[in-house]
Amino acid sequence: MDSGGAGSVVGRSKWGKVRVGSRWIGAVPPAIALGILATAVLAAVVAALGLVPDYPVAAGVAVALATAPSLSALSWVLLVDRSTLEGATDRPEDSVESSWYEKAASGAFADILLGTGLGCTALAFAPIEVEGLHALMAVILVAFASFGVRYAVQRRKG
Asked: Distance between CA atoms of 55 and 48, rounded to whole angstroms?
């Protein structure tokens, strides 16, 4: 394994690596550091806003304890170079699953456009009122169902 110069191949590891300057280091330590920094900022904001007026510091500590693992994991996802992970597919966009996803998503989008267009037309002439929140929830449910069914069909075909 070399230091990661232009066009060089970097070894793979279980937790991946991140490029710092001209060298590659493990991705976990910088992810934890960034996660702790983000946690501290969030906790300070919660304490400063006084969301729990009687105990602002305790509220900040509680938020920090609750969010530190998630923010560190998110930092790792944002920092790690996918090509340095063991077992990672070199070009995931060329996988059969990616093809299924694209076909299902494009079909679901067409379903949503058709469904909302017909629904709006029907509601324009129908003597009923529909609350906006309910209409949006219906659109989201139709989108989920359409995508799920289409993906399952693509998977079964493939």
From this structure: 11
pLDDT of residue 1: 45
Distance in angstroms (rounded) separating the CA atoms of residues 116 and 111: 8
Segment 66-111, tens digit of pLDDT: 999 999 999 999 998 888 888 777 777 778 888 999 999 999 999 9
1 SS3 class? coil
Task: For helices 28-49 and 56-79, give the axis angle rounded to 10 degrees.
Answer: 150
Question: DSSP assignment of 45-105, as one string?
Answer: HHHHHTSSTT-HHHHHHHHHHHHHHHHHHHHHHHH-BGGGBTT--S-GGGSHHHHHHHHHH
pLDDT at 5: 47
DSSP output for 112-128? HHHHHHHHHHHHHHSS-
- Cα separation, 69 vs 10, in Å, equals 28
Q: How far apart are CA 57 and CA 154, in angstroms?
A: 52
Sign of CA dihedral 137, 140, 142, 144: negative
Indicate the residue type of 71.
L
